[in-house]
Amino acid sequence: MRTSILLFALLLLTSLAWAQRNGPTGQRQADKAEDQFEKTVPPPLRQQSSVDFAKLRSDADELITLSQSIHSGIDNVQKGMLAKDLIDKLKQVEKLSKRLRSEITP
User: Fold this and answer.
1) 91 and 62 in a common domain
2) Residue 95 lies in a domain
3) Chain segment 47-62, per-residue pLDDT in tens
4) Looking at residues 29-50, what average pLDDT do you find?
5) Helix or strand or coil: residue 95?
6) Could you tell me the residue range of the domain that residue 90 belongs to?
7) Pick the residue with more confidence: 95 or 39?
8) pTM of this prediction?
9) φ, ψ (nearest 5 deg) of residue 96
């Protein structure tokens, strides 16, 4: 009796180990199909965007001018005077920097 239980347990463990090592057949076939599909699909082509470098340079120059005027405006804020257009200049700097960043990054 004891021998038959041990034999049964051994067979059970052996079958479980065999099933784990081989894995499910459907999963292997799916993995192979996925690998084959990835080999047949060409990589995406990177489209060259047309960047207007003259416009980028003019935007960068405008950023320089705005930042210099903002710098002097901040000095006036420290003295207690707030220029009317300081907030507008800060918004324009933000807009220009976002546009430059979106044009430069792929």
Assistant:
1) yes
2) yes
3) 556 778 899 899 999 9
4) 74
5) helix
6) 53-104
7) 95
8) 0.49
9) -65, -40
